[in-house]
Amino acid sequence: MNEAKQTKRSQEKVILVCVADLDLELMDRAANKLKLRREAESAVREQRATFDDLVTLEPALQWLMDDAVAYRKSHGKKNRCCANARWYGYGDWKGRGIKERLLELVGNASSRRIVKPPLRSSYAYDLAYDSIYRRLPNCRNCGCL
């Protein structure tokens, strides 16, 4: 019986050590994430940010980038391709434009109340706009140009 108690205590100690290690790892990750956010906010304010800095502050921007890249992959080699229809949301993409969703996330005209101040700038909007739009394929045989 005494041996069983010692085994149980040893197991409990191992569990406590594992939980403590896990807590420290989570705290380190949280601290690192906070540091990255502060660096990204500073980069946006100082107008030296990259698109990745914007994504650090608003992860949903990556979804828009992924959407543009997916459109490029699926339509980039087709005979007819209209990047502007995808961007502005007309034609086959009526009501599903990338720009409309971008406006919700960054810029002075953002419709979301929870947008952080660094993202409520024309600089952040222009950077996001240019970065994402450049990933779309060039228009071909669509009448835009």
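[next item in queue]
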Amino acid sequence: MNLNLYELSLVIDSQLEEKAISELRSRYIVLLEENGATIINIDHRGIRKLAYDIQGKDRAWRNQADYTFIQFEAPPTVVVPVEELLRLDEDVLRFMTIRPRHTPMAMPSPEEQQARDRRPRDGDGNDDRRPRRHRSDEDEDEE
């Protein structure tokens, strides 16, 4: 049987208790495995600020949500039934399943990501603080 690589992004309502969020995430992982998927990586990012407000099941607007990314290998027939259940689940604010073109990489731990985010950067993406000289500045110095 032909297996494809997929990544499922879950955006779960942060108004739920941590235990309920964990159970919801586990429910979809078990559902994937029961339908023949092999879980490759689970990246739970935790509660993050949303780019825009999303209305929850109680009609109140949410400005943050719990993010989880699940990478799995499965036959193409697995995705549709899982997405149908996600569409009906009012605690899932958004979801998206993609087929990445690259092999999954190990995600940095939250500590590694925070260390990367704290590093000073200039506009060119370099890690030092000293300003870069432009070619036109060097030409003026030579004259």
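[queue empty]
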